[in-house]
Amino acid sequence: MSNVRISRLAAAAVTLTFMAAGCSSVNPTAADPAPDEPSSIRVATFNASLNRPAPGQLVTDLQGENTQARAVADVIAANSPDVLLVNEFDYSGDDAVRLFNDNYLDGQYRHSFTAPVNTGVDSGLDLDKDGALGGPGDAWGFGQFPGQYGMVVYSKFPIATESVRTFQNFLWKDMPDSLLPRDYYGDVSDALRLSSKSHWDVPIDVNGKTLHVLASHPTPPSFDGPEDRNGKRNHDEIRMSADYISGADYLYDDKGVRGGLEQGASFVMLGDQNSDPVDGDSVGSVTDLPIVEFAFPGPLRDMLVAAVLIGEKTSTASLLVQYVDEELPRVGNRGAVVDSAGDVVAVIETTGVEIVALCDVSLQHALDEGEGYVDVAHWRAGHERFWQSAEVREELGDPHFSVNDDTQVVLERFTLV
Predict the structure, then answer these.
(1) Helices (H), 64-167
(2) Residue 86 sits in the same domain as residue 226
(3) What is the pLDDT of residues 87-113, one digit of tens each?
(4) For residues 292 and 6, what is the distance between their CA atoms, to the nearest angstrom?
(5) Is 316 among the domain residues?
Protein backbone atom coordinates (compact mmCIF):
# COMPACT_ATOMS: atom_id res chain seq x y z
CA MET A 1 0.00 0.00 0.00
CA SER A 2 1.09 3.61 -0.34
CA ASN A 3 3.50 5.32 1.97
CA VAL A 4 3.21 9.06 2.57
CA ARG A 5 6.08 11.20 3.83
CA ILE A 6 4.46 13.96 5.82
CA SER A 7 6.95 15.75 8.04
CA ARG A 8 10.30 15.73 9.82
CA LEU A 9 10.50 14.90 13.49
CA ALA A 10 12.37 17.46 15.53
CA ALA A 11 14.31 15.63 18.21
CA ALA A 12 18.04 15.02 18.27
CA ALA A 13 19.17 11.49 18.99
CA VAL A 14 19.81 8.19 17.37
CA THR A 15 19.55 4.70 18.58
CA LEU A 16 21.12 2.23 16.37
CA THR A 17 20.14 -1.49 16.88
CA PHE A 18 21.60 -4.23 14.59
CA MET A 19 20.64 -7.97 14.50
CA ALA A 20 22.85 -10.87 13.33
CA ALA A 21 22.76 -11.71 9.62
CA GLY A 22 24.59 -14.68 8.11
CA CYS A 23 27.70 -16.36 9.45
CA SER A 24 31.19 -17.58 8.64
CA SER A 25 32.99 -20.62 9.94
CA VAL A 26 35.81 -20.95 12.46
CA ASN A 27 37.04 -24.35 13.61
CA PRO A 28 37.05 -24.72 17.41
CA THR A 29 40.25 -26.18 18.83
CA ALA A 30 40.33 -29.54 20.54
CA ALA A 31 42.06 -27.96 23.52
CA ASP A 32 39.24 -25.50 24.00
CA PRO A 33 35.97 -27.15 22.95
CA ALA A 34 32.82 -25.10 22.57
CA PRO A 35 29.89 -25.73 24.92
CA ASP A 36 27.03 -27.93 23.77
CA GLU A 37 25.39 -26.13 20.87
CA PRO A 38 22.53 -23.96 22.12
CA SER A 39 19.48 -22.97 20.14
CA SER A 40 20.39 -19.38 20.98
CA ILE A 41 22.86 -17.40 23.05
CA ARG A 42 22.30 -14.47 25.35
CA VAL A 43 24.33 -11.34 24.68
CA ALA A 44 24.35 -8.33 26.99
CA THR A 45 25.91 -4.91 27.37
CA PHE A 46 26.30 -3.15 30.73
CA ASN A 47 27.73 0.24 31.66
CA ALA A 48 28.88 -0.82 35.11
CA SER A 49 30.62 2.46 36.10
CA LEU A 50 33.53 0.46 37.46
CA ASN A 51 35.78 3.43 36.86
CA ARG A 52 38.03 4.90 39.50
CA PRO A 53 39.72 8.31 39.96
CA ALA A 54 43.26 6.88 39.96
CA PRO A 55 45.11 4.21 37.99
CA GLY A 56 45.31 0.81 39.70
CA GLN A 57 42.51 1.54 42.15
CA LEU A 58 40.06 -0.81 40.44
CA VAL A 59 42.58 -3.65 40.71
CA THR A 60 42.96 -2.92 44.43
CA ASP A 61 39.19 -2.81 44.97
CA LEU A 62 38.63 -6.11 43.16
CA GLN A 63 41.23 -7.92 45.26
CA GLY A 64 38.84 -7.69 48.21
CA GLU A 65 35.10 -7.38 48.68
CA ASN A 66 33.75 -4.22 47.05
CA THR A 67 30.10 -3.27 47.46
CA GLN A 68 29.71 -1.70 44.01
CA ALA A 69 31.45 -4.55 42.21
CA ARG A 70 29.27 -7.06 44.06
CA ALA A 71 26.12 -5.22 43.01
CA VAL A 72 27.29 -5.24 39.39
CA ALA A 73 28.05 -8.95 39.62
CA ASP A 74 24.58 -9.66 41.03
CA VAL A 75 22.97 -7.93 38.04
CA ILE A 76 25.13 -9.95 35.66
CA ALA A 77 24.31 -13.20 37.47
CA ALA A 78 20.58 -12.46 37.35
CA ASN A 79 20.75 -12.09 33.55
CA SER A 80 23.39 -14.76 32.94
CA PRO A 81 24.62 -13.63 29.50
CA ASP A 82 26.84 -15.90 27.44
CA VAL A 83 28.64 -12.88 25.99
CA LEU A 84 28.96 -9.61 27.89
CA LEU A 85 30.42 -6.19 27.16
CA VAL A 86 31.16 -4.11 30.25
CA ASN A 87 31.64 -0.39 29.65
CA GLU A 88 33.44 1.93 32.08
CA PHE A 89 35.78 -0.77 33.33
CA ASP A 90 39.21 0.81 33.82
CA TYR A 91 41.87 -0.71 31.60
CA SER A 92 44.90 -2.07 33.43
CA GLY A 93 45.93 -4.98 31.28
CA ASP A 94 44.30 -8.27 32.25
CA ASP A 95 44.57 -7.83 36.03
CA ALA A 96 41.19 -6.24 36.75
CA VAL A 97 39.51 -8.41 34.11
CA ARG A 98 40.76 -11.60 35.78
CA LEU A 99 40.01 -10.42 39.33
CA PHE A 100 36.43 -9.46 38.50
CA ASN A 101 35.78 -12.80 36.82
CA ASP A 102 37.42 -14.89 39.54
CA ASN A 103 36.26 -13.00 42.64
CA TYR A 104 32.84 -11.76 41.56
CA LEU A 105 31.61 -13.76 38.56
CA ASP A 106 32.53 -17.20 39.94
CA GLY A 107 34.97 -17.75 37.08
CA GLN A 108 32.14 -18.49 34.66
CA TYR A 109 33.76 -16.59 31.77
CA ARG A 110 36.71 -18.57 30.47
CA HIS A 111 37.44 -16.06 27.74
CA SER A 112 37.85 -12.30 27.72
CA PHE A 113 39.24 -9.46 25.68
CA THR A 114 40.38 -6.00 26.64
CA ALA A 115 42.72 -3.48 25.06
CA PRO A 116 43.96 0.10 25.47
CA VAL A 117 41.53 2.96 24.92
CA ASN A 118 41.92 6.66 24.12
CA THR A 119 40.52 7.99 27.39
CA GLY A 120 43.19 9.64 29.47
CA VAL A 121 45.90 9.30 26.79
CA ASP A 122 47.54 12.70 26.55
CA SER A 123 47.42 14.23 23.07
CA GLY A 124 50.11 16.83 23.71
CA LEU A 125 47.64 19.39 22.31
CA ASP A 126 45.38 21.99 23.88
CA LEU A 127 42.16 20.32 22.79
CA ASP A 128 39.93 21.97 25.41
CA LYS A 129 41.37 25.43 24.67
CA ASP A 130 42.09 26.29 28.30
CA GLY A 131 45.52 27.70 27.44
CA ALA A 132 47.41 24.84 29.08
CA LEU A 133 48.62 21.43 28.02
CA GLY A 134 47.66 18.27 29.87
CA GLY A 135 44.67 17.23 31.92
CA PRO A 136 41.61 15.16 31.04
CA GLY A 137 40.30 17.63 28.46
CA ASP A 138 43.48 17.37 26.41
CA ALA A 139 43.42 13.57 26.22
CA TRP A 140 42.32 11.86 22.99
CA GLY A 141 39.28 10.87 25.00
CA PHE A 142 38.29 12.60 28.24
CA GLY A 143 39.94 10.86 31.18
CA GLN A 144 42.15 11.43 34.21
CA PHE A 145 44.61 8.67 33.27
CA PRO A 146 45.18 6.24 30.38
CA GLY A 147 42.58 3.49 30.47
CA GLN A 148 39.95 5.23 32.59
CA TYR A 149 36.42 4.36 31.36
CA GLY A 150 37.75 1.39 29.40
CA MET A 151 35.81 -1.73 28.45
CA VAL A 152 36.02 -5.52 28.45
CA VAL A 153 34.30 -8.37 26.62
CA TYR A 154 33.62 -11.55 28.61
CA SER A 155 32.57 -14.74 26.84
CA LYS A 156 31.69 -18.33 27.65
CA PHE A 157 32.73 -19.15 24.09
CA PRO A 158 36.26 -18.93 22.66
CA ILE A 159 37.43 -15.56 21.36
CA ALA A 160 39.50 -15.50 18.18
CA THR A 161 41.95 -13.06 19.73
CA GLU A 162 44.31 -13.09 16.76
CA SER A 163 41.46 -11.86 14.54
CA VAL A 164 40.26 -9.00 16.75
CA ARG A 165 40.24 -5.62 15.02
CA THR A 166 40.63 -2.39 17.00
CA PHE A 167 40.21 1.17 15.77
CA GLN A 168 41.71 3.22 18.60
CA ASN A 169 43.93 5.24 16.25
CA PHE A 170 41.53 5.88 13.36
CA LEU A 171 41.62 9.61 12.55
CA TRP A 172 38.41 11.61 12.47
CA LYS A 173 39.56 13.45 9.33
CA ASP A 174 39.56 10.19 7.39
CA MET A 175 35.80 9.70 7.69
CA PRO A 176 34.20 11.08 4.48
CA ASP A 177 31.68 13.86 5.10
CA SER A 178 32.33 13.82 8.83
CA LEU A 179 31.04 16.41 11.27
CA LEU A 180 34.57 17.26 12.47
CA PRO A 181 34.31 20.85 13.79
CA ARG A 182 37.41 22.30 12.13
CA ASP A 183 36.43 25.85 13.03
CA TYR A 184 36.82 24.91 16.68
CA TYR A 185 39.91 22.69 16.53
CA GLY A 186 41.77 24.68 13.89
CA ASP A 187 45.26 23.50 13.03
CA VAL A 188 45.06 20.38 15.21
CA SER A 189 41.94 19.03 13.47
CA ASP A 190 43.81 16.52 11.35
CA ALA A 191 45.45 14.93 14.40
CA LEU A 192 42.20 14.04 16.19
CA ARG A 193 41.26 10.43 16.78
CA LEU A 194 37.60 9.65 16.22
CA SER A 195 36.94 7.00 18.85
CA SER A 196 36.76 8.45 22.34
CA LYS A 197 37.56 5.00 23.78
CA SER A 198 37.96 2.54 20.92
CA HIS A 199 35.91 0.53 18.45
CA TRP A 200 36.42 -3.24 18.51
CA ASP A 201 35.40 -6.15 16.34
CA VAL A 202 35.75 -9.19 18.61
CA PRO A 203 35.09 -12.49 16.76
CA ILE A 204 33.63 -15.21 19.00
CA ASP A 205 33.50 -18.88 18.01
CA VAL A 206 30.01 -20.16 18.83
CA ASN A 207 30.12 -23.87 18.03
CA GLY A 208 32.02 -23.36 14.81
CA LYS A 209 30.19 -20.21 13.75
CA THR A 210 31.68 -16.75 14.10
CA LEU A 211 29.76 -14.01 15.89
CA HIS A 212 31.35 -10.57 15.59
CA VAL A 213 30.88 -8.51 18.75
CA LEU A 214 31.12 -4.86 17.72
CA ALA A 215 31.96 -2.97 20.89
CA SER A 216 32.18 0.78 21.44
CA HIS A 217 31.34 3.55 23.89
CA PRO A 218 30.91 6.92 22.13
CA THR A 219 31.49 10.12 24.04
CA PRO A 220 28.49 11.80 25.71
CA PRO A 221 27.07 14.46 23.34
CA SER A 222 27.27 17.09 26.09
CA PHE A 223 29.83 19.02 28.17
CA ASP A 224 30.83 21.29 25.28
CA GLY A 225 29.83 24.66 23.83
CA PRO A 226 27.99 26.06 20.82
CA GLU A 227 30.46 24.29 18.52
CA ASP A 228 28.87 20.99 19.71
CA ARG A 229 32.18 19.14 19.40
CA ASN A 230 31.07 16.26 21.62
CA GLY A 231 27.67 15.97 19.99
CA LYS A 232 29.31 15.76 16.57
CA ARG A 233 31.88 13.26 17.78
CA ASN A 234 29.13 11.11 19.31
CA HIS A 235 27.31 11.17 15.98
CA ASP A 236 30.36 10.17 13.98
CA GLU A 237 31.40 7.46 16.45
CA ILE A 238 27.99 5.84 16.03
CA ARG A 239 28.19 6.36 12.27
CA MET A 240 31.57 4.61 12.30
CA SER A 241 29.90 1.47 13.66
CA ALA A 242 27.16 1.71 11.03
CA ASP A 243 29.72 2.21 8.27
CA TYR A 244 31.75 -0.73 9.54
CA ILE A 245 28.68 -2.95 9.35
CA SER A 246 28.09 -1.69 5.81
CA GLY A 247 31.62 -2.71 4.85
CA ALA A 248 32.94 0.82 4.22
CA ASP A 249 36.32 0.70 2.52
CA TYR A 250 37.59 3.98 3.98
CA LEU A 251 38.05 2.41 7.41
CA TYR A 252 41.41 1.09 8.59
CA ASP A 253 42.20 -0.68 11.86
CA ASP A 254 45.19 -0.32 14.15
CA LYS A 255 47.13 -2.87 12.09
CA GLY A 256 46.48 -0.91 8.91
CA VAL A 257 43.96 -3.39 7.50
CA ARG A 258 41.28 -1.60 5.49
CA GLY A 259 37.56 -2.21 5.13
CA GLY A 260 34.63 -3.11 7.31
CA LEU A 261 32.67 -6.21 8.18
CA GLU A 262 32.44 -8.89 5.54
CA GLN A 263 29.08 -9.16 3.82
CA GLY A 264 26.90 -11.85 5.38
CA ALA A 265 28.82 -12.01 8.65
CA SER A 266 26.89 -12.52 11.88
CA PHE A 267 27.26 -9.64 14.31
CA VAL A 268 25.82 -7.86 17.29
CA MET A 269 26.54 -4.23 18.13
CA LEU A 270 27.05 -3.58 21.83
CA GLY A 271 27.90 -0.62 24.02
CA ASP A 272 26.61 2.46 25.74
CA GLN A 273 26.07 4.71 22.72
CA ASN A 274 25.20 7.77 24.85
CA SER A 275 22.35 8.52 22.48
CA ASP A 276 18.59 8.56 22.82
CA PRO A 277 15.91 8.56 20.11
CA VAL A 278 13.90 11.28 21.85
CA ASP A 279 15.81 13.09 24.59
CA GLY A 280 19.34 14.39 24.90
CA ASP A 281 21.86 16.32 22.86
CA SER A 282 22.76 13.91 20.05
CA VAL A 283 22.83 15.21 16.49
CA GLY A 284 21.92 13.78 13.11
CA SER A 285 19.24 11.62 14.64
CA VAL A 286 16.94 8.99 13.27
CA THR A 287 14.15 11.33 14.29
CA ASP A 288 15.49 13.99 11.92
CA LEU A 289 14.54 11.71 9.05
CA PRO A 290 11.33 12.03 7.04
CA ILE A 291 8.52 9.91 8.44
CA VAL A 292 7.47 6.91 6.37
CA GLU A 293 3.87 5.85 6.94
CA PHE A 294 2.53 2.68 5.40
CA ALA A 295 -1.24 3.04 4.88
CA PHE A 296 -3.19 4.58 7.77
CA PRO A 297 -2.88 3.72 11.49
CA GLY A 298 -4.59 0.45 12.28
CA PRO A 299 -4.41 -3.26 11.42
CA LEU A 300 -3.29 -2.71 7.82
CA ARG A 301 -0.35 -0.54 8.85
CA ASP A 302 0.60 -3.00 11.57
CA MET A 303 0.65 -5.81 9.02
CA LEU A 304 2.74 -3.83 6.53
CA VAL A 305 5.25 -2.67 9.14
CA ALA A 306 5.64 -6.22 10.41
CA ALA A 307 6.38 -7.35 6.86
CA VAL A 308 9.02 -4.61 6.54
CA LEU A 309 10.69 -5.58 9.81
CA ILE A 310 11.10 -9.23 8.83
CA GLY A 311 12.31 -8.36 5.35
CA GLU A 312 9.32 -9.67 3.41
CA LYS A 313 8.25 -6.23 2.18
CA THR A 314 10.90 -4.50 0.09
CA SER A 315 8.77 -2.37 -2.22
CA THR A 316 5.78 -0.06 -2.07
CA ALA A 317 3.59 1.94 -4.42
CA SER A 318 2.18 5.45 -4.16
CA LEU A 319 0.07 7.64 -6.38
CA LEU A 320 2.06 10.28 -8.24
CA VAL A 321 -0.65 12.79 -7.35
CA GLN A 322 0.28 12.35 -3.68
CA TYR A 323 3.60 14.09 -4.37
CA VAL A 324 2.16 17.40 -5.62
CA ASP A 325 3.58 19.26 -2.61
CA GLU A 326 6.48 16.90 -1.87
CA GLU A 327 9.69 15.78 -3.50
CA LEU A 328 9.63 12.40 -5.17
CA PRO A 329 11.69 9.71 -3.46
CA ARG A 330 15.26 9.36 -4.65
CA VAL A 331 17.74 6.53 -4.45
CA GLY A 332 19.73 6.90 -1.23
CA ASN A 333 16.95 8.66 0.66
CA ARG A 334 16.36 7.36 4.17
CA GLY A 335 13.17 7.50 6.17
CA ALA A 336 11.93 6.57 9.64
CA VAL A 337 9.15 4.00 9.56
CA VAL A 338 6.46 4.57 12.19
CA ASP A 339 3.89 2.15 13.54
CA SER A 340 0.24 2.83 14.36
CA ALA A 341 1.25 4.54 17.60
CA GLY A 342 3.54 6.92 15.72
CA ASP A 343 6.70 5.38 17.17
CA VAL A 344 9.79 4.96 14.98
CA VAL A 345 10.42 1.25 14.54
CA ALA A 346 12.87 1.10 11.63
CA VAL A 347 14.89 3.06 9.10
CA ILE A 348 14.67 2.23 5.40
CA GLU A 349 16.76 3.40 2.47
CA THR A 350 15.40 3.83 -1.05
CA THR A 351 17.21 1.63 -3.57
CA GLY A 352 15.06 2.18 -6.64
CA VAL A 353 12.33 4.53 -7.96
CA GLU A 354 10.19 4.15 -11.06
CA ILE A 355 7.11 6.00 -12.30
CA VAL A 356 4.81 3.88 -14.45
CA ALA A 357 1.20 3.65 -15.55
CA LEU A 358 -0.92 1.46 -13.33
CA CYS A 359 -1.36 -1.04 -16.15
CA ASP A 360 2.43 -1.49 -16.42
CA VAL A 361 3.20 -2.59 -12.85
CA SER A 362 5.25 -5.81 -13.01
CA LEU A 363 4.66 -9.11 -11.28
CA GLN A 364 8.03 -8.82 -9.51
CA HIS A 365 7.01 -5.55 -7.92
CA ALA A 366 3.70 -7.02 -6.79
CA LEU A 367 5.48 -9.98 -5.19
CA ASP A 368 8.12 -7.75 -3.52
CA GLU A 369 5.42 -5.79 -1.72
CA GLY A 370 5.30 -8.79 0.59
CA GLU A 371 1.56 -8.72 1.10
CA GLY A 372 0.73 -12.14 -0.27
CA TYR A 373 -0.25 -11.11 -3.79
CA VAL A 374 -0.18 -14.02 -6.25
CA ASP A 375 -0.34 -12.01 -9.46
CA VAL A 376 -0.61 -8.43 -10.75
CA ALA A 377 -4.41 -8.57 -10.92
CA HIS A 378 -4.53 -9.50 -7.23
CA TRP A 379 -2.12 -6.66 -6.41
CA ARG A 380 -4.13 -4.16 -8.45
CA ALA A 381 -7.44 -5.11 -6.85
CA GLY A 382 -6.01 -4.54 -3.38
CA HIS A 383 -4.48 -1.20 -4.30
CA GLU A 384 -7.59 0.04 -6.08
CA ARG A 385 -9.61 -0.63 -2.92
CA PHE A 386 -7.11 1.35 -0.89
CA TRP A 387 -6.59 4.25 -3.31
CA GLN A 388 -10.34 4.65 -3.83
CA SER A 389 -11.10 4.42 -0.11
CA ALA A 390 -12.77 7.26 1.78
CA GLU A 391 -9.53 7.95 3.67
CA VAL A 392 -7.41 8.44 0.55
CA ARG A 393 -10.12 10.47 -1.18
CA GLU A 394 -10.29 12.74 1.89
CA GLU A 395 -6.50 13.09 1.93
CA LEU A 396 -6.52 14.07 -1.77
CA GLY A 397 -9.49 16.40 -1.33
CA ASP A 398 -11.41 14.63 -4.09
CA PRO A 399 -14.50 12.66 -2.99
CA HIS A 400 -14.79 11.05 -6.43
CA PHE A 401 -11.14 10.12 -7.02
CA SER A 402 -10.63 6.88 -8.93
CA VAL A 403 -7.81 5.13 -10.76
CA ASN A 404 -7.55 3.59 -14.22
CA ASP A 405 -4.96 2.00 -16.49
CA ASP A 406 -3.28 5.35 -17.14
CA THR A 407 -3.02 6.46 -13.50
CA GLN A 408 0.64 7.25 -12.73
CA VAL A 409 2.09 5.39 -9.77
CA VAL A 410 5.44 5.71 -8.03
CA LEU A 411 7.11 2.34 -7.44
CA GLU A 412 9.74 2.44 -4.76
CA ARG A 413 12.17 -0.26 -3.66
CA PHE A 414 13.87 -0.06 -0.30
CA THR A 415 16.02 -1.94 2.17
CA LEU A 416 16.22 -1.96 5.95
CA VAL A 417 19.17 0.01 7.30
Answers:
(1) 67-79, 95-104
(2) yes
(3) 999 999 999 999 999 999 999 999 999
(4) 8
(5) yes
